[in-house]
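lol forgot to send this yesterday, sorry. struct tokens for the thing we talked abt
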């Protein structure tokens, strides 16, 4: 070996060692800063989340984020640091400032990971101004009056759902009520908001839109990633793990939405028509409609399937509800006022509480000036949030919280309402909450009135879910079987 070669080799080795040393110094100094000098040093929590966000990314990916953070709350209290600059709060007093007062804190940047086809949606945008134009155009469609005016069409979807459930029950084979309830949900969304029924309840086998919905649910695995990282990761997954079932489902939904938007006039009072009248282009309107199909199908489908399974598991509660329904003259779509059937209202509310359709945090960013809660200061830029899992499973507010007990809502306390978080809170709460609530009420009432659940039993000992932003049932089934 020549002297020059030896010198070049030594220089390369020195360069690599220098880079490694610089990297080690950077990691060490950053770790010391995050542990001892960071503005969130006073927030309790375990060592690893203080040092790196990888702890949070890992638990979000494997689907036990809410459970893992719950264990931290049991150990450290109501305020816990879950990443170097993120804090989870289980105190319901935080809901007002974070989500309600003066419009709430801004949404965290990671919501952009739920953009669709390059467009921010009413849900995913972090801009109040961007959302305001779009929400103003379509919010009237979600009013109780608008739903009441279209009650015959919506209730027609419910009737077809119950007929299909009866048909499936008669086969004596296990019936996936999660799939059927998703079918109803997509039918209600499309019928009321698009004036064109997707007609999912007529499909045999798995709902054609399910793989489309599941693909968007899976985005929740990577919810907290920086958007640039998320975009590249999503591209890689699409290239390496694409499957025919998902591609076909995506294509069917794209075709349904594309045809709908193309033939819709700006004078139409439908969801896409109102958006056209507001000046949005067709590409964005398609994205907004797809977002609506995803959100309405997934969450409400999960809610209704949970309610049906809970009634089957608790025959005494089913009998009580059936007695109330059969004794009340205001059945069906005439029972628009939830108070007309108080136990039905309680069953639906309890189902929403325990279903965990959206179990994890809704992260928002502390604005300039900082914020204090119960003598704890959060500097500007801190990402804070509350979760339905933590609020709904609080044993001091909901004794025996994992049990289905509709009776608790018949004489509900203020503290229970304060911890109610099924649709979020404030101006950024679920825009379709009125539609979803009435759909659940009417579907539950009609199912029980028909007595189709008589003789049914649950096939699964428990339902395991992946605790992503939108939960995913691990085997995609909530099954009932009839004797």
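and heres what i got for the seq, position by position
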């Amino acid at each position: 070996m020549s002297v020059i070669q030896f010198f070049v080799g030594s220089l390369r080795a020195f360069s690599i060692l220098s880079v490694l040393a610089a990297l080690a110094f950077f990691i060490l100094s950053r770790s010391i800063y995050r542990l001892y000098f960071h503005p969130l040093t006073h927030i309790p929590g375990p060592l690893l989340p203080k040092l790196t966000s990888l702890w949070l990314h890992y638990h979000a990916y494997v689907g036990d984020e809410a459970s893992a953070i719950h264990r931290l709350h049991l150990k450290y209290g109501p305020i816990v640091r879950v990443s170097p600059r993120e804090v989870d709060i289980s105190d319901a007093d935080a809901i007002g400032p974070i989500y309600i007062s003066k419009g709430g804190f801004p949404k965290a940047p990671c919501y952009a990971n739920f953009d669709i086809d390059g467009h921010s949606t009413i849900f995913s945008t972090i801009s109040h101004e961007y959302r305001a134009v779009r929400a103003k155009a379509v919010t009237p469609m979600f009013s109780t009056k608008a739903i009441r005016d279209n009650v015959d069409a919506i209730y027609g979807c419910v009737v077809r759902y119950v007929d299909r459930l009866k048909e499936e029950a008669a086969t004596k084979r296990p019936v996936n009520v999660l799939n059927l309830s998703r079918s109803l949900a997509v039918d209600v969304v499309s019928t009321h908001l698009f004036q064109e029924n997707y007609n999912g309840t007529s499909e045999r086998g798995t709902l054609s839109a399910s793989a489309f919905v599941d693909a968007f649910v899976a985005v929740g695995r990577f919810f907290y990633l920086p958007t640039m990282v998320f975009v590249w990761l999503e591209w890689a997954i699409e290239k390496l793990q694409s499957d025919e079932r998902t591609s076909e489902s995506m294509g069917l939904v794209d075709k349904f939405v594309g045809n709908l938007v193309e033939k819709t006039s700006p004078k139409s009072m439908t969801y896409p028509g109102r958006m056209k009248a507001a000046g949005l282009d067709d590409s964005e309107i398609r994205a907004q409609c797809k977002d609506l199909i995803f959100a309405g199908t997934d969450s409400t489908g999960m809610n209704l399937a949970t309610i049906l399974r809970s009634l089957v598991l608790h025959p005494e509660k089913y009998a009580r509800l059936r007695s109330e329904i059969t004794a009340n003259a205001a059945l069906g779509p005439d029972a628009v006022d939830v108070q007309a059937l108080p136990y039905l209202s309680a069953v639906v509310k309890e189902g929403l509480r325990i279903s965990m359709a959206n179990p994890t945090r809704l992260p928002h960013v502390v604005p300039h000036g900082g914020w204090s809660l119960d003598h704890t200061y959060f500097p500007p830029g801190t990402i804070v949030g509350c979760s339905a899992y933590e609020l709904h499973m609080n044993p001091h507010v909901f004794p025996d919280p994992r049990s289905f007990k509709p009776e608790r809502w018949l004489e509900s306390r203020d503290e229970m309402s304060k911890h109610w978080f099924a649709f979020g809170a404030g101006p950024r709460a679920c825009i379709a909450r009125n539609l979803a609530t009435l759909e659940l009420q009417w579907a539950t009432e009609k199912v029980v009135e028909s007595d189709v659940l008589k003789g049914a039993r649950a096939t699964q000992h428990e339902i395991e879910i992946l605790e992503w932003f939108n939960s995913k049932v691990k085997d995609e089934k909530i099954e009932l079987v009839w004797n």
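The chain has a mean pLDDT of 93. anyway ping me if u want another try
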